[in-house]
Amino acid sequence: xxxxxxxxxxxxxxxxxxxxxxxxxxxxxxxxxxxxxxxxxxxxxxxxxxxxxxxxxxxxxxxxxxxxxxxxxxxxxxxxxxxxxxxxxxxxxxxxxxxxxxxxxxxxxxxxxxxxxxxxxxxxxxxxxxxxxxxxxxxxxxxxxxxxxxxxxxxxxxxxxxxxxxxxxxxxxxxxxxxxxxxxxxxxxxxxxxxxxxxxxxxxxxxxxxxxxxxxxxxxxxxxxxxxxxxxxxxxxxxxxxxxxxxxxxxxxxxxxxxxxxxxxxxxxxxxxxxxxxxxxxxxxxxxxxxxxxxxxxxxxxxxxxxxxxxxxxxxxxxxxxxxxxxxxxxxxxxxxxxxxxxxxxxxxxxxxxxxxxxxxxxxxxxxxxxxxxxxxxxxxxxxxxxxxxxxxxxxxxxxxxxxxxxxxxxxxxxxxxxxxxxxxxxxxxxxxxxxxxxxxxxxxxxxxxxxxxxxxxxxxxxxxxxxxxxxxxxxxxxxxxxxxxxxxxxxxxxxxxxxxxxxxxxxxxxxxxxxxxxxxxxxxxxxxxxxxxxxx
Length: 537
Known about the structure:
mainly alpha, Serine Threonine Protein Phosphatase 5, Tetratricopeptide repeat
């Protein structure tokens, strides 16, 4: 039985700790060609609202919401009232943009206008009801969900919506009846279980919600939303997620997919030993034999500091497929950890040979060059990564570090730190935005501490990663006592990345200043079990 490649890609992408700064597919040559046609047509007639509408749709498909909004606003200015079809499309599209950018009230205004133009449109009434629910307008939402029932008595969406309203009305009995009706209407549809899971989550029935997501995946293992919802659930309720998956594994031990998903989620939450156990069981029992599983075991071993084992597994993965840039990037990281910088550079180059636009490969090859002392080339490669993805603070922080530490270019470092400090995106309250680190290195200590403490106070830490970043921050700030306190909390929460604790030095986002402190070494030793070190004694 082959592991579905789409499932693997979606799962790993959703679980990855580096998610959130991906390049837009709008750079695809075909998309660029389409946009060029629209550009030419608009040069000939800037007021062609049909072309503007088409371009707005194209931008929206590629998550270019600001550009899409500019075009659709122009459409609504230009299209006469008699062009109802165009204006209807524009209102619906603009509502979608507003929803994606968390402007639900504005979305509802446009959906009200759209519903007035198409009062029997199931999709518009459905979107309108959901917007009303999100804004706490439960009575209005209830009326619209009831209207959906009249438009399509066998539509499960209406029952799910009414169940959500019933929960808000504290009528849990009615909510459960409505959920049962939804499933009875469409028992083979994975989306029904995904939606029921969302209501059960609202009810606080986390185990039931996880079970529904597993049912959704069981009925359609290509269902991307079910997979992502389950992984997202792991981010907010790890115990319930793992309990549900463990139950699924025990009931169907030969269904490798459940064990695989459990491993992916465990790995994403730095529970590397558990992940390795599931991945290895999949291989030992021949449930799947996929190069990505070998790569995942390699990454887990790398994080646990087992570099020889990691290299062995990534080489097995590359023995199965030679055109995977990510595998070469991981191999380069492992080789750097082993001090083999020349070979690390070669693996980075191999990744770029597969995909010249792979920014992680550019960064990894740069770090290999740092190891061999070629700092100028390292800076150039990181500069290329920044050009490719100007919204990724990681590459800027690495280049600033190289400029400051190795090239005697403090002005370049300051420029890069300022760019990171000035970035405004929705990851600003995520430590991966690195905003506070940049402020710290610019000497803006109080601003930086405010950023870090706000994250520690407001962001729930499910696996110790948040407190690890806190330990890194205060270690770099010279507040060793606060850093030790946060490191202890991180370890108690299970953050098992031994490489990060003991070896990582890239870019000044690390706990290097703690490593000569005997208290820190003893702290790590007390947590040997999460790293698997006790097993090796």
